[in-house]
Amino acid sequence: MNIVFELPFYSPSVGGIVESIKFAEKLGASVRFQRKSGFHPILNVPFTLGMPDSTFPKCDIVVTYSDNPYLDKLVKLPQIGKVFVYMLSYGMSYANERHNALHPKVTTLCSTKKIEQAIIKDGGLVTRIGFALDMDDMFDEGKERFDNSALYYHPMASKRYPLAVEISNALYGQKLIDNVYTFGTHDGYESHKKPAGLIKHYFNANREQIRHLFNQSRVFISTSNSEGLNLTPVEATLCGCPAVICDGAIGELFIDGHTCYIAKEGDYFDVLNCAIELLSDFDLYRELFRDNMRKIVKQYTWDNLLNNFKKVIE
């Protein structure tokens, strides 16, 4: 069976794209990127470039992404058998995602219970096939740590970077942290305020840099309320850097007080108090959250995801 994954562009730092490419690789599928990116793709799968038009490769199945704005064009192509949309997020680009999830000519798949429930609530039909995690290289090195706070940066308003800066400044002002690292994209970064005690901002950090960052930091703070799979707090936790998040996008993994702290969305004092709580007994929360997360992620294997997908297409 000839399967093609259709994605917007190649990026080594966008979780949904990275995970979709891994999925394609496991299935022996190819990838179609709608446009070029600033990154040179180093892939183990064949790929082509182009919009969903007459140049699209002939195939039995296309698997496309949550907020694809060209789904109507894709389903009209005569060289394609069936179209599946795999919802890794639902709410980041709500208009497109709702349109795609409820599209009468596609089969809708999703990754998490939260997404499944949201689509059903909107009147859609969806099959939850789950997701897979490659977290073997994310580990707590057990080395001496600096008193750092890692903040997730993104220029989108929904990521609430200014709130993260406020929280960081409060922690720094109270001398609960000594310095700060941030990471994220280039876009719009210079126009934003920088947190006090900033050592370095990592642009489009790769997996090795992120692992190093989390292995030397004491707390990861993500004030974002718009995430898909939201794997970064999982990676931080496995590296022994307990996380405070505001978007429990994966209820299967994010359990308040068990694998992380989930603060109220946009609530300065709740986020701050959660961070202070983690820093007040770092060794306890590092081990508790890390060990609990390690047990849970073992359930989310590629074998399970592939088997669930094959049941749908058979």
**Shape descriptor:** elongated
Please tell me the CATH architecture of the largest domain by its name: 3-Layer(aba) Sandwich
Mean pLDDT: 92
Q: Secondary-structure element sequence? A: EHEEEHEHEHEEHEEHEHEEHHH
By secondary-structure content and strand pairing, the structural class works out as alpha/beta
**Number of contiguous helices:** 10
Tally the beta strands: 13
Rg over CA atoms, rounded to whole Å, is 20 Å
Amount of helix: 25-40%
**In what order do the strands lie side by side in the largest sheet?**
3-2-1-4-5-6-7
What's the end-to-end separation, in Å? 10 Å
CATH first level of the largest domain: Alpha Beta
The CATH topology of the largest domain is given as Rossmann fold
Can you identify the CATH superfamily of the largest domain?
Glycogen Phosphorylase B
Total domain count: 2
Poorly predicted runs: none
**Portion in strands:** 15-25%
Main sheet: strands, sense, barrel: 7 strands, parallel
